[in-house]
Structures are given as structure tokens and as C-alpha cells.
Amino acid sequence: MRIAMIGTGYVGLVSGVCLSDFGHEVICVDKHEGKIAGLREGQVPIFEPGLDALLASNVAEGRLSFTTDLAEAVQGAEAVFIAVGTPSRRGDGHADLSYVYAAAREIALAASGPTVVVTKSTVPVGTNREVGRILRETRPDLAFAVASNPEFLREGAAIDDFMRPDRVVVGLGDSADGDGNADGNAARAREVMADIYRPLFLREFPIVWTDLESAEMIKYAANAFLAAKITFINEVAALCERAGADVKAVAKGIGLDGRIGSKFLHAGPGYGGSCFPKDTRAFAQTGRDHGVELRLTEAVIAVNEEVKARMIGKIADLCGGDLQGRTVAVLGVTFKPNTDDMREAPALAILPALQAQGARVRVVDPQGRREGEHLLPGVDWAEDPYAAAEGAHLVAILTEWNQFRALDLKRLASAMAEPRMADLRNIYDPQDVQAAGFLAYASVGRTGFGGAAEERTAAAE
Ligand code: NAD
């Protein structure tokens, strides 16, 4: 089947490459000329493990190509996917749908025959119906069908997630509701979607066939739930610190309950990234639009902000509450390992706050520098953790890259002016850190040693 993928970002590129690997003929489109020029040369614009090899093999086999010309890609395509960005709209947190609607208009103008338009971008309930309306209004002469096919891939594990998904969700309109799927187009949309994902159905990955609204809602409800789970354990972590419990043991103890599950129960510096922050905001806004206050989601958003602020206090506390003139070596600034994505990474809130309190910040990140350089003005970039720690007063682990999981702690401590560690991903055992010669250590939801907090406790006793 011939497929056009509009938007060649994290989702569009991975989806396009994987669909071509399923055997479809895929043309990926992006407005960004540099991105497309690079892709034509085999240069992958993002860091995603395994993507470059899969892309190269599908290009070599003639199934995958790249263009800036949307009309060229859309003409003759049976299915056109919309995978453009839906960032937060300034001010109200609503999803900015202008890229989605602009793409729908361009698709309508370019289409040459019956086309199934599939929304892969994360869009609030009601958006696909509006896409259908735009298509009909722009090209009343053509038979369009719309389908909602939200994407659940995780950056860093995106190919595996696309190829071996927990489920595929497809929302379709019914044939009588005037959503662009009238006159039998809904049935055709179902056939086209079934053909696209046939390799997955054959391997019995579950597919959820549903209506447009439910498909749209599934994506937001899933992300809001996951953000709530992370936030829950972060809140428990704060209590563990005060009450002398260990959040890692608590997470293990609750996660082994099959009804709860162990994933997304890792305490840390708060969720970030290109999805959870914007999607929780948009979900809360959708609730308000419909007169249903989503109080849990609203609380998750607020608590997550507090978590990031708490991390800043934790780092300052380790230095006796005074960061003026201190050097902080930060290990990891991307929002999670195995990605170069810096969107809404906790580092973007934490590092400027440290700088504002007078700290010099030195950063090392295996992939974050390209994006991070302009997002984090005034920081110095180091090549490796030991160089970053040279003469520093504190090392702060913000992202649990594998490279940071087995550091030579003695070497790290001896490189520092005053060895202290803020382990915001709970990678290390406090005893090991102390044995390596560190003066102070704090993590999230576990007892540390040294630092102002301990001094305050000692003074009170
Ligand atoms: P992105 O910003 O990385 O990529 C979007 C791309 O679309 C950009 O390259 C932009 O130039 C291009 N674009 C915009 N309008 C265009 C047009 N009219 N024609 C051609 N190209 C156009 O975004 P992303 O992270 O890939 O996210 C895309 C969507 O997928 C969002 O709705 C997001 O919420 C959702 N999503 C993202 C992830 C993720 O992990 N990043 C996971 C699941 C879902």
C-alpha cells in the first residue's frame, strides 16, 4: 500500500520507517528542508536506537523515501497519516491544533482520489471530526474517510514499541454521522487500516477498534494515568524521606501487586518530555471545556511542579543551603535516557534555578548537547563525568543513562573539590557513596547523609 506520512519528527519518522518495514511504500514529508535533505543522505535527525539501520535498509529496498513536497506524497496515496506536533497552546494549556488542521487542508488540496486520512498526532476529543469537516469543506468532490490512530511509542524504545505494541487503537466514524465517513467510506477506512497493520494482527497483537472520540480519549487517559502513577510515587518519596522509609522498597512492595504493577514507580525529579506535560495540561483543559473538572489530573500537574522545586532545594541543602560560587556537575539533561529530546526535561527547570542561586553548572550528557546548548545558556559542557566533576562541589545525576550507572565513585570523589552527590534517579547505594569518600549524599525518597538537612536534624536532637 502507498502511504504518505506528514511530519517527520520522533513519531512520524519512526512510524514511517516501521510501516515501510512492514512492506508498505512510504513517503515521509516534512516542511523542514534541512531535515529532509539530511534524511535523503541517510542522516537521522534524532537519536533513537536502531532507527538509522532500519531506515537505511528500507531506503535501499526502495520502499521508503523523503520529500518536502506534500502534494507529491499525497497524490496516489491510499492512506495519509498526520504526525505533526500538537504542543501546548500558550496561555491555556490547550493542545495547539493549528499544525493538524493546516496539514488537513493541504492534504485535501493535494489529494487526487479517495483517501483515508489517519491522525497519529495526539489530539483532543473532537479533533478528528473537525479534520473530516475540513476535508469535506476543502474538497467536496472527493471521498475522504478519517481514522484516529494514536501512537503509544516511547522515545528510546520506539522501534520495539511500534513493532511489538501492547495494542493498536483505531477509531473510525460510523457511516451515518456526517464525519466524512458517509457513503460507505467507514468500511473502506477499516479495510485500509486493517491492511496497514496486518503484520501486527497476524502476530496477534491486540487491536482496539472503536469510535473516533474513544480513540482520542484513550491516548490522553493513558498518558494522564501514567503521569499520575509517576507523581504518586514521587509524593510517596517525599513522605518516605521525612518518615525514614525507603521508596525503592516501598515501590517494590506495592509494584509486586499485580493490580498495581511495577512500571512507572521510580521516584525521581518529576516527569518531563514531549508528551506527559503537554498531554496532562490538554486533558485537564478538555475537562474544563466540557464542564468536568479533572481534579486528579489537575493535582498531578501541580504536584509535578512541586517535585521539580523540591529537587532544587535538595541540591542546595547538600551544599549547606548556599550555592553561591559552587560548581555543580550535572550528569544527564535529557528527560530520560536513550533520547536526545530535551522538551520539558526537568533539567530545564532545575539548572537555571541553580544558576540563579549563584552556582556554576557543568553538564555532561551522551546525546543532550545538540538541543541543550541553546536551551541551557551559560552552562559549560564536559566530555565525560570525571571531567565534569573536576573541582566541583556537587555532582547531580538527573538522567539515568547507562554510562552513569557504574561510575568509579572513588575517582569521581577524588576529582571533586568537595565530594557531594544528589542522586535524583536513586542509582547508587548510599553506603557505597559514603565508602567512596563522599561527604554528603541525597537521593529521592531514601535517607542520605551529610548536608544541611542532616545538620538541622542533628541540631534539633
Ligand atoms: P516533532 O515536533 O518531533 O515533529 C513534528 C514534525 O512535523 C516537525 O518536523 C515539523 O516540521 C513537521 N510538520 C509540521 N507541520 C507540517 C506540515 N504541514 N507538513 C509537513 N511537515 C510538518 O513531534 P513528535 O514528537 O513527533 O510528535 C508528533 C505528535 O505525536 C504529537 O501530537 C505528539 O504528542 C504525538 N506523540 C509523540 C510521542 C513522542 O514520544 N514524541 C509519542 C506518542 C505520540
Notes on the protein architecture:
Its EC number is 1.1.1.22. It is an enzyme of class 1 (oxidoreductase). Pathway: Nucleotide-sugar biosynthesis; UDP-alpha-D-glucuronate biosynthesis; UDP-alpha-D-glucuronate from UDP-alpha-D-glucose: step 1/1. One of its GO terms (biological process) is polysaccharide biosynthetic process. This is UDP-glucose 6-dehydrogenase. 45% of the residues lie in helices and 13% in strands. The protein is α/β, with parallel strands linked by helices and 461 residues long. It has 2 domains: 204 residues, NAD(P)-binding Rossmann-like Domain (Rossmann fold), CATH 3.40.50.720; 251 residues, 3-Layer(aba) Sandwich (Rossmann fold). The protein has an 8-stranded mixed sheet, sandwiched between helices. Strands 11-10-9-12-13-14 form a 6-stranded parallel sheet. α1 crosses α3 and α12 runs antiparallel to α13. The protein is elongated and about 75 Å long. The N and C termini lie far apart (73 Å).
The CATH homologous superfamily of the largest domain is named: NAD(P)-binding Rossmann-like Domain
The CATH level-2 architecture of the largest domain is identified as 3-Layer(aba) Sandwich
Largest sheet: 8 strands, mixed
Average pLDDT, rounded to a whole number, is 95
Radius of gyration: 24 Å
Protein name: UDP-glucose 6-dehydrogenase
Pathway: Nucleotide-sugar biosynthesis; UDP-alpha-D-glucuronate biosynthesis; UDP-alpha-D-glucuronate from UDP-alpha-D-glucose: step 1/1
GO molecular function: NAD binding; UDP-glucose 6-dehydrogenase activity
Catalytic activity: UDP-alpha-D-glucose + 2 NAD(+) + H2O = UDP-alpha-D-glucuronate + 2 NADH + 3 H(+)
